[in-house]
């Protein structure tokens, strides 16, 4: 019974790690969207746009695109690190 309890805790721990990584990914997506809006790469969703009004496309500067990509790469590296740590913790725990 003790062994089963340990496996349940281990599974919950791995699940919590994935939940944390998912939450981090959601924050990254939101922050990236905000950065894109801030830099003029995309427009914030406006009610009039959903009613059929079409705004002309925005042509971003290469510097703004580069900054957004760098932010995205940093965020993805952080998520990869969180997943690797979660996997390492799961693998190193006695089973």
Major sheet details: none
Q: Indicate the percent of residues in helices.
A: over 70%
Strand content: under 5%
Number of DSSP strand runs: 0
SSE topology string: HHH
Question: How large is the count of helical segments?
Answer: 3
What's the N-to-C terminus distance? 13 Å
Taking pLDDT < 50 over at least 5 consecutive residues as the criterion, the unreliable ranges are none
Structural class: mainly alpha
Mean pLDDT: 75
Shape: elongated
What would you report as the Rg, rounded to the nearest angstrom? 20 Å
Question: What's a concise summary of this model?
Answer:
The protein contains 3 helices and no strands. It has 95 residues and is mainly α.
